[in-house]
Each structure stands twice: as structure tokens, then as C-alpha cells.
Amino acid sequence: MQEGVSGVDFFRRDFLKLAGAGVAGAATTMQTSGAIADASAGHSQSIDGRFDVRAYGAKGDGHTIDTPAVNRAIAAASAAGGGIVYFQAGTYACYSIHLKSHVALYLEAGATILAASTPLEGTTSGGYDAAEPNAPWAAYQDYGHNHRHNSLIWGENIHDVAILGSGLIWGKGLSRGWSTEKPLAESPGVGNKAITLKNCHNVLLRDFSILQGGHFGILVTGVDNLTIDNLKIDTNRDGMDIDCCRNVHISNCSVNSPWDDGICLKSSFALGVARATENVTISNCYVTGAYKMGTLLDGTFQKFSSEQNIPQTGRIKCGTESNGGFRNIVISNCVLEGCHGLALETVDGALLEDISITNITMRDIVSSPLFLRLGRRMRGPKGVPVGHLRRILISNIVCSNAAAHPGSILSGIPGHAIEDVKLSDIFIQHQGGALKTQAAMQPPELEAEYPGPDMFGPVPSHGFFLRHIRNLDMSHIEIAPMHPDMRPAFALEDVANATFFQVQTPRSAGVPVFSLRQVDGFRVAFSQGVPDTQLTQAENTAL
């Protein structure tokens, strides 16, 4: 802190710089008004634009339910034209907190918003807001995507709002939303999400941490002009889901989510329309599913034992909800460790196009390093045609110690091919060890099934299984099994116009590098162990 600058002034200057014109302008209004009134009378109480929740009755002792005081502070800031709702160090046990336009929550270092335990069954009051109905389209997406009011912090149809500061949001009393949980997430008074926003714009989430976020640490639906920066999320299901949103920037975040996705883009039908998620950047992030919950935040990074059988999901994904589609997305400079790999999935009739993925490092990947799936689950309104997955650029990928099964998978369905894919400068080291019998496997199509890397069972390749693709270009690809693998490195089926340039992989005796079935227009050049070859058609060919 600079000499001669008070703590309040320092805080306000930092907030005004970060929060942008909408919220910051409202905060400036509050500073110049100097409004101070009796909180017990329901009027605004502000010191230099801050609405301290303790001035509205919050105790911050971890036991008293502080929700009424927090919501009074937010309402006062909103009524005054906007401001900063301030949490001093302390633990504020709360149920549903209602965000409003032109209001920022600021969590000071040492401040925790604690999701209080659900009231005992049979009590007549208290608990989280009831889950609002979402008929008639509730059947088109998972339960959690239909409801937002049953959350710790939520806002709907608001704008110019922020949550800032180095404090903690701890969803200790939240449900994960599993149907096996008691009480169920659907039960009155139960909350199952840490932060949710619907139909909002100009939103900033920065610098705080989330521990044990419930079904979703962050769920935003129909939110435009969204910035998420420098968050640490250590949670028991999804880290953050970005659904039907536009102009989104996610950066410098760390997410440990062993039981579900880390950073997930979706385009569900929860808004009652097919709305795309588009113009998105995800950069400089770390995602993992390898660590016991809480040990990312405390810096001990304690890994699960192999006996615990944790799914270690933790990945970056587009899908599975895919009614509105995905367009203009860049994923760059990210690290994946001890989790599933990158996934691009469109199975509900949407476009998934114009995607660039570059500068990614992966270690200890437990499934496919790269998984691209065009399917026809078609969960949504009837009459929608199968979608498209096209114009995908993936480059500068390094992956070490990946699972041998199933390898990377790019698969469309019969009559609906993935189109225009370029992969370059990729190094994948995997555990290897598969027997030659697996090379004869014919994975089922499973056109209407929920997509996932394990959906096909064993695949007949150890590098890439490539099926139903048009216009594929792969260059400077190295596949490095740690133990000899008796499958081809590349298995192609129903692929047209495929070019491979400078491919490297060890070749075992009697094991081809390429297995080609129903392939039209195949070229390979300058590749280890394979002569330069050009084929107009290959019905069943090994190279």
C-alpha cells in the first residue's frame, strides 16, 4: 500500500480499476453522495461507497445466519444507485444471497461466505430459495441446469455486477445434486450451487476461491460480457459451466474437480431457445482431477490413492448439452494434469465450429487426450437435424503418461462426418501394452448415446481412432508408447481426403502404422517407418 493512501481509498481505487464502467460508476456515485443512515431503519449506510454487511447486522461468526443482513446491504446499495457490499474478515453463514445490478460483493482476505447447512426436515422456515420451475423444456437438460434460485449466490436479469476479493466461498452445506444424496437436491430448502447467474450482462468474477461448490461452483446461463479471472476452485463436482453465453474470457484460473468437469462450455435449452455459446477465450488455466478436495487451496496437493476409484474428470470440455452450439472459441496456454483430456462434443443438433486449441500441456491423462464427437442424442425439441462439427485447429500439444486406452478419438456418425480438422505439432506419450487381438476390435457406432471417451470400449489404435471424417490434415505428430503396443498408431474408417506429414511412432514387427478402411484420398509423406504413399481409395489396407 502506498504511503499516504488509506485502506478504504486503496480498496476503492483497485475496485474502480478492475470492475469496469458499470459497477464502478455506481460506486463513484455512492462515494460522492456520502450517504450514511440508520441501518436499523432500512436506509442505506455507506462509508466511501462501501456497504459493510456488519453495519446491517451480520455477525460473521460462522454460526449466525447472516443472509438477511447481507441481502439488506445489497438492497441498500442497489437502492442508492449501486455500490460495494463489503465483507470484512470473518465467516458469514448464509442461505440464498440475491445479487442486484450495479452491485459488487467484495470479500476481504480472511472473509468466507459459508453455505449454511440445510434446515432439518420438518422445520417451517429457513434454507435456500426454492428451485424455480422451468417448464416446458425442463426435460431437455440435466436437473441442475433448469434451476438457479436454489443456490448460495444468484442473480437473474441483472447487469454490471461483480464478485471480487481474495476471500473464500465455501459451499459446505450444498448438495452435489446426485439423486442418491439425502436430502435430495430437489427437496425444499436445499441448495446445490455456489454461484448462478441467468440472463445477465457485464459480469466480473475475480480473485476469490471456491471450496466444495456443490453441483456447480459457477453456473452462468445466457450471460454476455463475462470475465472470470484468477479464481481457485477446489470442488466436489463441476468447477464452472458457461452455458449459452457470449463474449466470455476465462483466464488464470486453477480448478480441481475430481468428480466432474473443470471448465465446461455448454449450450443447453434451459432458456427455452437454442442459443450458442460463442466468442470465448480460455487461457492460462490449470485443471486437474487428481487431488483430494481442499488440497489445491491449502497447497498440499494430496493425490488420491489408486484404491479410491475416483473418476478424475477435471477436464476442459465443450458439451455435452449442445442445443445452441459453439462458435469462435480459443483455448490456449493451459495445463491439464491427472484428469480426462480435452473434449469437443455436439450431440443435440448444434454447430460446433471455428475452434482453435493451442499450447496445451497434459500429464497423467486418464482417458483420451483428445476427444471429438459428433453424435445424434438429440435431447431437445423434435425436428432438429443432426449438427455439424467442423473447422477445428489443434496445435502445439504435449501429453505425457496418458492411459493406453482408449487413445485419442475423433468420430462422427454414418452420414454425418466431422469436417475440416487440422492437428499439428503434437507429442503424445502413453502407457501402451495392448495386445494384437485389440487391433481387430470394431467399436460400435452408438450414435444416440451420451458421449464420452470410454463409450466405444476398446479401440483398434493406440494413437488416434479416426472415423467418419472429411478433410483431415495431421502433421508433425509423434506417438510414443512407454511399452510395446500391438495396435496400429492410426486407425481410419470412412475418412475422405486425409493427409499425414512427418508422423513418428515406433513400429513393432508385423504391426502397421496405419489401418485404413473405406478411406478415399489418403496421403502420407516423410513419416517414420512408412513409405511416401498416395492412395485414391483403400477399402482395407495396412501401411
Q: Topology, pairings included?
A:
Elements: H1 7-19, H2 21-33, E1 50-52, E2 61-65, H3 67-79, E3 83-87, E4 90-94, E5 97-98, E6 103-107, E7 111-115, H4 143-146, E8 151-156, E9 159-164, E10 168-170, E11 193-206, E12 209-211, E13 216-229, E14 232-234, E15 238-243, E16 246-251, E17 254-256, E18 263-267, E19 277-283, E20 286-288, E21 316-322, E22 326-337, E23 342-346, E24 351-363, E25 370-374, E26 388-402, E27 408-411, E28 418-430, E29 464-481, E30 490-504, E31 514-525, E32 533-542
Parallel strand pairs: 1-3, 2-4, 3-6, 4-7, 5-8, 6-9, 7-10, 8-11, 9-11, 10-12, 11-13, 12-14, 13-15, 13-16, 14-17, 15-18, 16-19, 17-20, 18-21, 19-22, 20-22, 21-23, 22-24, 23-25, 24-26, 25-27, 26-28, 27-29, 28-29, 29-30, 30-31
Antiparallel strand pairs: 31-32
Helix pairs in contact: 1-2
